[in-house]
């Protein structure tokens, strides 16, 4: 899938830096790939053309917020992208659209590109309320039931959702995410790219780059 943006979301994997380095070494060295490892590996893995992204961040740049990581910190170590509003953050950590909106604003202020995940279209307007720099926002459509389940969205339903998102936010690029694999990735060829979880940790990932 040439020139499409491919985002590798490692989630909370792998366990060691050595393993993380091994995964990155396997990747084709292409500039349309964004790798999003856990925070602890962000500053250690060596990249050439592949770009760096984070899986989350806080909405303020410093202060008494134990355990949080700020947009300014991410920027300072060379991160270009941040995933926000992932389904797992919404469902496990109870992040709501209001919180995600604060994060989107803070990341844009730090000149980071935002990959905003939504599983329902109704999450879009509130998450992007008051955002002006929409050209730096990439929307990832990820149906909740397709994430990590092996049950990808049908090409026709995904296309229907893509068109609806484009109608609402024409200047945003739109990615598909949810059980993408080497056999189904071409089903989403109308999208501007893919957000990939499990497959991005495997050697087969290169075949979709
Ligand atoms: C994801 O993490 O956003 C994702 C889509 O995961 P998977 O590809 O494993 O379904």
Report on this model:
The protein is of the alpha/beta class and 209 residues long. It has one domain (5-208): Aldolase class I (TIM Barrel), CATH 3.20.20.70. 28% of the residues lie in helices and 18% in strands. The protein has 7 helices and 8 strands. The chain has helices at residues 17-26, 39-42, 71-76, 87-92, 97-109, 122-127, 155-168; strands at residues 5-9, 33-36, 51-54, 81-84, 113-118, 137-141, 173-177, 193-196. An 8-stranded parallel β-barrel has the order 1-2-3-4-5-6-7-8. The longest helix has 14 residues, at 155-168. The chain is globular, with a radius of gyration of 16 Å. It binds phosphoenolpyruvate. The site of phosphoenolpyruvate has 15 residues, from strand 8.
Strand order of the largest sheet: 1-2-3-4-5-6-7-8
Number of strands: 8
Structural class: alpha/beta
- Could you report the average pLDDT, rounded to the nearest whole number? 97
Q: Count of DSSP helices?
A: 7
Residue stretches low in confidence (pLDDT < 50, at least 5 long) are none
N-to-C terminal Cα separation, in Å? 6 Å
Q: What is the fold-level CATH name, i.e. the topology? A: TIM Barrel
Question: How many whole angstroms does the radius of gyration measure?
Answer: 16 Å
Q: Which shape, going by the Cα principal axes?
A: globular
The distinct bound ligands, ions and cofactors come out as: phosphoenolpyruvate
Percent of residues in helices: 25-40%
How does CATH name the architecture?
Answer: Alpha-Beta Barrel
Top CATH class? Alpha Beta
What count of structural domains? 1
CATH superfamily: Aldolase class I
Q: Tell me the quaternary state.
A: single chain
Element-level helix/strand string: EHEHEHEHHEHEHEE
Strand coverage percent: 15-25%
Sheet with most strands: 8 strands, parallel, barrel
């Amino acid at each position: 899938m040439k020139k499409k943006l491919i985002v590798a979301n490692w989630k909370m994997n792998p366990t060691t830096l050595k393993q993380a380095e091994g995964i990155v070494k396997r990747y084709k060295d292409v500039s349309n790939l964004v790798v999003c490892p856990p925070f602890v590996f962000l500053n250690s893995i060596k990249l050439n053309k592949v770009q760096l992204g984070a899986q989350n961040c806080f909405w303020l740049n410093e202060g008494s917020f134990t355990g949080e990581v700020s947009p300014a910190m991410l920027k300072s170590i060379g991160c270009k992208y941040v995933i926000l509003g992932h389904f797992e953050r919404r469902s496990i950590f109870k992040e709501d659209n209001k919180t995600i909106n604060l994060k989107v604003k803070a990341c844009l202020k730090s000149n980071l590109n935002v990959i905003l995940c939504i599983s329902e279209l109704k999450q879009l307007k509130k998450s992007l309320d008051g955002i002006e720099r929409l050209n730096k926002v990439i929307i990832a459509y990820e149906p909740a039931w397709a994430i990590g389940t092996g049950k990808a969205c049908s090409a026709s339903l995904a296309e229907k959702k893509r068109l609806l998102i484009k109608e609402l936010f024409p200047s945003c690029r739109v990615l598909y995410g949810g059980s993408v694999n080497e056999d189904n990735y071409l089903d989403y060829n109308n999208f501007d790219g893919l957000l990939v979880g499990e497959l991005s940790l495997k050697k087969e990932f290169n075949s979709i780059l």
